[in-house]
Design goal:
Blueprint: E1 23-28, E2 34-38, E3 44-48, H1 52-62, E4 71-76, H2 80-87, E5 105-109, H3 113-132, H4 146-169, E6 170-179, H5 186-193, E7 198-202, H6 210-213, H7 218-228, E8 233-236, H8 239-249, E9 255-258, E10 261-264, E11 282-288, H9 295-302, H10 305-318, E12 322-329, H11 336-349, E13 357-364, H12 371-391, E14 399-403, H13 407-416, E15 419-422, H14 431-439, E16 445-449, H15 455-458, E17 463-465, H16 470-482, H17 485-499, H18 504-517
Parallel strand pairs: 1-4, 1-6, 4-5, 6-7, 7-8, 8-11, 12-13, 12-15, 13-14, 15-16, 16-17
Antiparallel strand pairs: 2-3, 9-10, 10-11
């Protein structure tokens, strides 16, 4: 058999581990709640970690009781400064080295750089992310050959390191909440090590339908599904993503799906699954938790001086013109290029808006270590320049693009928007849609992709678009700009009410309570 056809080796079975830890609640995620940078004198500077997941869980962790051992957060070192901090801490536990990590004790795993790159970049971000967001062009991509098999072995090892750390930190019967597509094997690995634990996994991405999920090699599909089914509880952002997972899971032998429950009777190799009872199997419950935003905290942040300063700068830049805003990462699934094409179509089809509007695009650099993302960012820059070249006048710049990491600027932009564009190809939730609704001071009209998770809750008050239809999106922008004030107010009030429906603290504690109450 040629090397490219060789199947992935079966996932190694971790040895059972004794309960030695003291943590009653544990969180595991690739990115942690804190990160380190080099100070001017070589000292380590601790700062809050970036990313929506960290923001959400970080708020929840802040509410934990002052006993640090009650909540332990296990994460990976993402840079050299993180690794130096981990090396100074016993077992990577930052609190034991004197670092102030707040209410959550943090354990940083210093993972071999090659294993991390293969697991995080090659598998998680280049394969699993692409599958779950339907980003592949199957005529040419993907190709799963010998190199992928090496990458997959690294993903297995990466997940096993998290499982081992969690097994060491967890007290008997502790609750463990594993986060996202980077750690899909951890629940099964951890159950084999510590069958006494209550384990949950939450998917912050969409879930691919079965026909698309089958792009993955057969053995990889099975390992991912059985890895997740090692949990007691699986969480998703919308019913649509939970339904898609169930349809994938029910194709496995030894698995039965009914009424948001998966009964696991056998493993991928046909053997009895760990934890299966003689009277009918182990039950995995599925919950849907549509994460919202903390409206009060967001508005407090918007009232601070740095945000007010950015808002004044942006208002001056707009010069009294109406602002169409988008705030996104330069991520392929966010669909920025088609959004810009729709704005160009608006200016071509509706000349009345020339000189009357400005499109403000606040973009965050994303995954620039992957060539696809570098190329996409350049495509965004090129198209923005083309639009300005075509329409700009001496006293009017039709589009202002900033590709920088500037959170105060983003909050200011959302507060000033009259139209907010959220048109992803596919998105697990899209918190920007909810942040914009919470922060709007101008009754912003939301132009929302029907493929965003937020559509399930916000579609009734938004202008809903097919993210691939540039002409229809341009028409929606026009409709937003001419919408009567009373209708804008009504829609904005509905959107704001949805945005704060399940803030991060409640989102987290609801899942924790459901996990703790599971039989």
């Amino acid at each position: 058999m040629p090397p490219d056809a060789a199947p992935a080796p079966p996932e190694p079975v971790p040895a059972p581990s004794a309960a030695t830890g003291t943590a009653r609640v544990l969180v595991a995620s690739n990115r942690g709640p804190v990160a380190f940078a080099d100070g001017p004198d070589g000292e380590l500077l601790l700062r809050r970690g970036a990313g929506g997941l960290v923001s959400g869980l970080g708020q929840a962790a802040a509410d934990a009781p002052p006993d640090a051992d009650r909540l332990v957060w296990v994460c990976a070192a993402l840079g050299d400064a993180d690794r130096r901090a981990a090396s100074r801490a016993p077992d990577g536990r930052l609190d034991r080295a004197g670092f102030d990590t707040g209410r959550a004790a943090v354990r940083i795993l210093d993972i071999d750089q090659e294993i991390f790159d293969r697991a995080y970049n090659a598998v998680a971000n280049r394969v699993l992310w692409f599958v779950q967001h339907l980003l592949y062009a199957p005529a040419s991509q993907p190709v799963f050959g010998a190199r992928f098999r090496q990458d997959w072995a690294a993903y297995q090892a990466y997940n096993a390191m998290f499982a081992e750390a969690l097994a060491q930190e967890a007290a008997p019967g502790a609750c463990v909440l594993v986060q996202d597509y980077h750690l899909m094997l951890v629940p099964g690995q951890l159950r084999r090590m510590r069958p006494d634990l209550r384990i949950a996994h939450f998917s912050h991405t969409p879930w691919a339908p079965p026909d698309y999920f089958r792009i993955l090699p057969d053995d990889v599909q099975a390992q991912l599904l059985h890895g997740l089914l090692g949990a007691d509880r699986l969480g998703f952002l919308t019913d649509a993503w939970a339904d898609a997972f169930e349809r994938c899971a029910e194709a496995l032998p030894g698995v039965a799906v009914h009424d948001r429950q998966v009964r696991v009777l056998a493993q991928a190799d046909g053997a009895q699954a760990d934890g299966v009872e003689a009277d009918g199997g182990r039950l995995v419950r599925i919950g849907v938790h549509p994460l919202g935003v903390d409206v009060g905290e967001l508005r407090d942040r918007a009232a601070q001086a740095d945000v007010a300063g950015r808002a004044a700068e942006l208002a001056a830049l707009a010069g009294g013109r109406r602002l169409i805003v988008r705030v996104d990462r330069t991520e392929l699934s966010k669909n920025i290029v088609r959004g810009l094409l729709a704005y160009r179509e608006l200016l071509r089809a509706q000349p009345r808006w020339r000189g009357q509007v400005m499109h403000l695009v606040c973009a965050y650099p994303s995954r620039h270590n992957l060539p696809e993302y570098r190329e996409y960012t350049q495509a965004v820059r090129r198209l923005a320049a083309e639009i300005n070249d075509e329409f700009a006048e001496d006293d009017w710049c039709p589009l202002h693009l900033e590709v920088t990491d500037d959170y105060p600027r983003s909050i200011a932009a959302l507060s000033l928007a009259e139209v907010l564009v959220v048109n992803p190809v596919r998105d697990g939730m899209n918190l920007v849609a909810k942040e914009g609704a919470a922060l709007s001071r101008r009754d912003a009209v939301l132009v929302l992709s029907r493929e965003a998770g937020a559509y399930a809750e916000m579609g009734g008050a938004a202008l809903v678009v097919n993210p691939f239809d540039v002409q229809a999106t341009a028409a929606a922008l026009h409709t937003a700009l001419i919408m009567p004030a009373a209708e804008r107010r009504r829609r904005a009030a509905e959107l704001a009410a949805v945005a704060g429906r399940l803030p991060p603290r409640i989102w987290f504690t609801d899942q924790l309570a459901a996990l703790a109450a599971a039989p």
